[in-house]
Description:
Immunoglobulin-like; TIM Barrel; binds alpha-L-arabinofuranose; globular; 10 helices; eight-stranded parallel barrel; alpha/beta; 2 domains
Amino acid sequence: MKAKMTVSSKYRIGRIDNRIYGSxxxxxxxxxxxxxxxxxxxxxxxxxxxxxVLDLVKKLDVPVVRYPGGNFxxxxxxxxSVGPVADRPxxxxxxxxxxxxNEVGLQEFARWADKAxxxxxxxINLGTRGVEEASNLVEYCNQxxxxxxxxxxxxxxxxxxxxxxxxxxxxxxxGPWQVGQKTPYEYGRLANETAKALKLxxxxxxxxxxxxxxxxxxxxxxxxxxxxDLCYENVDYVSxxxxxxxxxxxxxxxxxxPTGMDSFIETVVHTCDFIKAKKRSxxxxxxxFDEWNxxxxxxxxxxxxYKNTPWKVGPALLEDVYTFEDALVVGLMLNxxxxxxxxxxxxxxxxxxxxxxxxxTDNGGTAWCQTIYYPYYYASHYxxxxxxxxxxxxxxxxxxKYGTVPYLDATAVHNEEKGELALFVVNRNSGESLSLxxxxxxxxxxxxxxxxxxxxxxxxxxxxxENPDNVVPAESDALSxxxxxxxxxxxxxxxxxxxxxx
Length: 502
Ligand code: AHR
């Protein structure tokens, strides 16, 4: 099968905001307790943070981490998470039927984020709480001194403000599962009043309003329309969430599903722009895709935990073990984010450690990388710069749910500072390689610097503690570049990374 592509340094989608390679840590399962934090672990530092996990996180170069939820945040009292640890209450977390000991809170997580060399994106509880608690939290975090909450922070031993710039106004407020679910009118009004108060404190804070929990919600995209109509001028981003699954073991459909992510983004962008037009506004609201991943493997075992052993600290929830084919889908989802990087300015792989995560740990044992770690790693390292507008001419297949789907999916990112062009290429065809001829213009003097491929004879292959390197990218020389055309065979069912440079 033949496929063609045109890449030009002149045809640009736009400058990528590095924050599209963000991630997420929720107080859920073993993300915090047993994940990033395990005092007594042989690699733990003086704060109880696991050094092996920190190393794997740092390798990913994660620009921003959303915290502390997720559904967890919707019944969370942030005040429980600051001050002397011995005085903090244990609370029941209704979202995940677990017990929250508050050993790790805002203070500790901010310290972990510093060590992980990442920025914090904080979510505010707008499920059970409101404007006042949100304002207090922002004052505690960002006011230097001379007010009740800032002086309390100083009393807690943190002299300098945290200066957190990015805030989520609640989480999935349309979801029936959410503690404090709201109608679009109730939420839009609350989000607007909260946003107003936060911007009175600091007009440059960046605020994310909740969009629909997914594009399968019956109220999508009417929710976005009504909520944005109520708060458009006071918010900067609307959130999007998506989790893809292969619970019917239909590979063609699973690989097609990221095309639904493309149309989901386009619909939300159009909804934002409709409200912009309606309000005759000069302001553009962009997208924070702050939860995205594959999630379905752990569903049944989690139901058993909620039913039979609820209210534990750090239960093994949402511990999906990712396959080779999941890594392909994550690669395709990253391509969708890059392709829409003119409007998607923030995105968070949900999540980072143990909970639907690229990094897994054993309590008291080792840490290892799941299959999905690798496409994320390469996109985060090499997908920074300017996203280019490709013209792709690929053979296609028909899918009952997603329509006509190209076998070839690709993105290209030009890093002008480094003089590099990175290509991320997926072949969805499980039977045949794609014979690719890509015309590349504007990159004279470039040559192939690096080429990696992920393939596996077993689509269901996984990485485990015993065999952590079962599914990893390998060096490749499948494609060659003569200064004008990149050509060669893209193997069946493969994720590929090609780096051109001087
Ligand atoms: O990431 C897991 C959960 O998925 C989050 O808590 C919630 O926001 C979403 O439903």
